Amino acid sequence: MRQYSVDLTPPWKKPQPVPEVPAEPGLVVEEPGTGFCGAVTGCEAGTVTLEDRFGKRRVFPMEPRGFLLEGRAVTLVRPPSGPVRPTRTASGSVAVPGARARVARAGRIYVEGRHDAELVERVWGDDLRIEGVVVEYLEGVDDLPGIVEEFAPGPDARLGVLVDHLVPGSKEWRIAEAVTSEHALVVGHPYIDIWEAVKPSSVGIAGWPRVPRGQDWKTGVCRALSWPQNTGAAWQHILGRVHSYKDLEPELLGRVEELIDFVTVSGAA
């Protein structure tokens, strides 16, 4: 006699199918068993490597229903064969595979110092090359009026400037007011130094310390955090924790995007 088996499990108790998602580099997922959350950096031999915001990497098997994407279970699968490139740049823009850097525009973006320039390059470098925007640094804003006068901004050569600690009534504020025009835009963030524009959680600290007035701010930060008082090394430590726009404060993100838009408007070629 032929025997039959009957599945008596109610439909609502049966495992529901989950979507299969290619493990593209840059995709951020969570491994629920460990709580480890990170971006995909590669996959091979049935495993996927994730890197968290502190730069720590872990390898996990790509098992069915093995990961959470935006809180929902997914099955990671190997991406289609062929070169795999990130789908997003560090700034969050859509990546353009194979795009060549555009010939530099006449317009420019100036930032206060080398650290500012390095941070902008880290997050917006791909976007700036595609747009043909060059970023230069000033080593302070005291000479900005003369620099703007010499640059002579115009419709085809717009100038954008990013200033630290741009708060009403400050010296920087007065200088910005003096040089801003139809073709020159000065914007800023409220932080004493560009270091503060990096989220403390990304650096692995509870918050940026308060430094008494009259003390060198960067040296005071190193002292308060018990870091070696080598500000160059400290900055490299901070910069190494920045992987994308998610590691920066919104007050900086909006200002840089505003400057890029300003110098790349139609006619500012």
From TrEMBL:
The chain positions of domain DUF3097 read: 20-79, 108-264
> So which residues are the signal peptide here?
none
The record's InterPro entries line, in alphabetical order, gives: DUF3097_C, DUF3097_N
Q: Which residues cross the membrane?
A: none
This chain's protein is named DUF3097 domain-containing protein
Q: Which organism is it from?
A: Streptomyces ziwulingensis
